[in-house]
Amino acid sequence: MVRPWYLPDNFTLALAAAVVAASVLPVHGAGARVADALTTLVIALLFFLHGAKLSREAILAGIGHWRLHALVLVATFVLFPVFGLLLKPLLLPLVTPQIYIGVLYLCVLPATVQSAIAFTSIARGNVAAAVCSASASTLLGVFVTPLLVNLMVLPHGSASSSLDSIQRILLQLLVPFVAGHWLRPWIGEGLRRHASMVGLVDRGSILLVIYTAFSAAVIEGLWRQVPLTALAGLLVVCSVILALALASTTWAARRLGFNTADEVTIVFCGSKKSLASGIPMAKVLFPAQAVGATVLPLMLFHQIQLMVCAVIAQRYAQRAQAVQPAGVTAVD
């Protein structure tokens, strides 16, 4: 049976179902702690599988792809803040001043790692470069984000970073990746024969993250903290900023002559913001009573970017499948 043109793909429908489930039945208490632990485990498994899947040549090529990494970092830590500042006169009337502080905070955060890599893999992009670029963005964000918060979000405040963030990144992301790559001679061939397993982890990890993140937002009073008009305005603000980021990274990648696989990586790594890094940082950088409103834009932006990028990733994948033989990926 042919799917109607107006019906989204199954993965997008699954994302919508996760949002609805989190709104109706948010995980909390002991269940939330179990979900957080499971999310950490799934993300570690994702990096383990990608470490085992990628060849040494692909990893070295990813590390040495300095033009791509530079473009992603410029988009993350320069382009986004510029958008936030320049659009303030136009977008501030749509929300409250406190919420727009959260919008500016969103703009100075590092790129998300897990979903950027997962979407890059789904879209058959340069996964090796995505691992290096997104991880570097997160590591730099531990130091760069507090500085940018002091400069443009809270000019008269003070911000600090924690070495614990670096330790968690190393333990959760790099250690599993290195372990998987070390075991590649023994398990790499099996993963190639069962490539669908990696895809299942990609999609499953995104669904788990969106459910747990939206559950936390609902429990914190997402639907009670702001008026409906401000919430609607915030949806517009987040959508405008994301659209500008996606359009700018796509245009820059093509203008600078990157191939399609690299374009995919630049688009997904350069247009995302990290919920996993943003919420812990907000608890350190902002007064306790302001954290809820400050992270609300990040929570909504996170959901929008997952939904939109799911559609874009599927389109990239369909385009790659149309021009490549079956079983061949953009990066092996």
Classify the beta-strand content into a percent band: under 5%
Q: What spatial form do the alpha-carbon principal axes imply?
A: globular
Major sheet description: none
**From the alpha-carbon coordinates, what is the Rg to the nearest angstrom?**
19 Å
The CATH topology comes to Na+/H+ antiporter like fold
Low-confidence stretches: 326-332
- When the domains are counted, the total is 1
Structural class: mainly alpha
Assign a percent range to the helix content: over 70%
Tally of contiguous helical segments:
16
Elements, N to C (H/E): HHHHHHHHHHHHHHHH
Q: Briefly, what CATH class?
A: Mainly Alpha
CATH-derived architecture: Up-down Bundle
N-C termini distance: 33 Å
Q: Mean pLDDT, as a whole number?
A: 81
What is the number of E strands?
A: 0
